Amino acid sequence: MHRKIIFTVSCLLIISASACFAGLNYYEEKVHKFNYTVEGEIEIKPDKAVFPIILTIQGNSYADSLKNTQRITHQIISELKQLDNTVFTASPSDFFKQRDRGKTLLDVSFWRNDENKPESKLIFNIYVNFKTDHTFWQRAEFLAEAHDFIDRFIKRYKEDETVSVYPEETYYEIDRIEQYREEIIRSIYEKAKTMADIIASEEKVNLDIRQVTFGQHIVKEILNFNRASLTINADIEFAFDKTGENAN
After folding, report:
1. Which of helix, strand or coil describes residue 28?
2. Which of 241, 238, 246 is nearest to 16 (CA)?
3. Which of 1, 17, 39, 137 could form a disulfide with 132 if both were Cys (CB 3.0 to 4.6 A apart)?
4. Where is the signal peptide (predicted)?
5. pLDDT confidence of 198, banded at 50, 70, 90?
6. Residue 237 to residues 92, 164, 186, 234, Cα–Cα distance (Å)
7. SS3 track for 71-88
8. Does residue 76 have a pLDDT over 70?
9. pTM
């Protein structure tokens, strides 16, 4: 997977560091320390797109509505398999799984509608499973194909008052986020070293990185189907001595 480590040292951070040094009395104590919070960040691409579909089926009884729900679900999955089955897959949504959007989806529910007729509702997912070598345009084409597939089913049952096919908002997922922790930590060390080199050059002192305390959680931000970032915050303790030699 193509990934890019982001190295950004804010001008404001450098200015703040200089101001911090200006306010210190270098000669009051041999060793001086100061701390900064550094953000380690890498860019990756989402592994999959998720299309939640809600099927609401009316029947003469709950058993009848559920039977029709099964029939239509199997039909959708069967036709989906005619597409590239290495990319497109489907399955019922995970029972009571908490989504990133904070919305809990149930697999099947039953109730009577405004006309007092039994209905069943099934929520399932269509997945677009991206490969590591898929380009931007390949990913976009797969998404367009999934949208077209869903639109065909919506139109098929548009005139049927007993069937409702409703797509929810598409979202994207990253698999096995923990596998990236080591790479993010490496980016933090590299960023801290860059900061130390710049500050040492400006202030004419030698800096040591005394201690690094890492945050436990990896924060993800998924911008679109082709771009996402993972970050970990870390508290960096720098040290220098009044002679300009590395602090022990």
Report:
1. coil
2. 238
3. 1
4. 1-22
5. confident
6. 49, 59, 16, 10
7. HHHHHHHHHHCCCCCCCE
8. yes
9. 0.72
